[in-house]
Amino acid sequence: MAWNYQMRAYMKEHLTLYIFVSVLFVMGIVFGSLMVDALSPGQKEEIARHVESFVQNVNQSGIPSDNTTFIQSFSLKIKWVALIWVLGLSMIGLPFILLLDFLKGVLVGFSVGYLVSMLSWKGMLFALVSVAPQNLVVIPALVICSVSAVSFSLYLIKNRLLQKRGTIYPQFIRYCTVTLCMAALLFAVSLFEAYVSPSMIRWVTPLLPGAG
To answer: How many CA within 13 A on the CB side of residue 15?
Structure first.
């Protein structure tokens, strides 16, 4: 009961931040998808060649499901989370946290937008198995990390810079706990990317241009 009450109080206190950060991600996704239309024909052809090369490699040798893939995947995600955590420790890091959220949305939006624009329903299918599954967890995890970081940064500004009162220890512990929990969740996502996602991608790549 106490835990449920604390969770409700936490969500009520941070609801505005969650909405703001989520909207920022969505804006990034929309902007990233619109960037596809801004590409020149030469840029689109260059990306298309890379996609076709990737498809041919997958169909010839597959995607390795091994520890190296897992380490690369988790390393990229944990660096992103660690950067958000470090920025949250600084009073001047707040705008950079929001910028990272926007850029993450841009990356996802551009990836999905390009696949759909170039490959129609086949691109949508490929995006559903290669981009969407992990990002359904990664994006909420980054939203939670970002809200926690922004909240802690605002707390520092209010209680250390403006009022200079109280201890930051309880808030710091809560901040670190949230970040560690999200890191553990991203660890599980990286396992999925390394050992499950390759099979899903191999299943759909024969439908794409260049598969032959």
So the answer is: 6
Residue 86 covered by a domain: yes
2, 9, 22, 23: which is closest to 145 by C-alpha?
22
Are 32 and 139 spatial neighbours (Cβ–Cβ below 8 Å)?
Answer: no
Secondary structure (3-state) at 57 = helix
130 in a structural domain: yes
Q: What's the CA gap between 27 and 33, in Å, rounded?
A: 10
Quote the domain boundaries for residue 157.
2-207
Give the CB-side neighbour count of residue 170, counting CA atoms within 13 A.
3
Spell out the per-residue pLDDT of the chain, length 212, in tens.
Answer: 555 666 676 677 788 999 999 999 999 999 999 998 887 777 777 777 776 776 666 666 555 556 788 888 899 999 999 999 999 998 888 899 999 999 999 999 998 888 888 777 777 887 888 788 889 999 999 999 999 999 999 888 887 666 666 678 888 999 999 999 999 999 999 999 888 887 777 777 776 655 44
Q: Are 168 and 159 in contact (CB under 8 A)?
A: yes
Q: Cβ neighbours of residue 180 under 8 Å, at least 6 residues apart? A: none
Q: Which is it for the CA torsion 199, 78, 51, 207, positive or negative?
A: positive
30 falls within a domain? yes
Query: Cα angle vertex 125, ends 196, 35, to 5°?
Result: 110
Whole-prediction pTM:
0.85
- State how many domains the chain has: 1
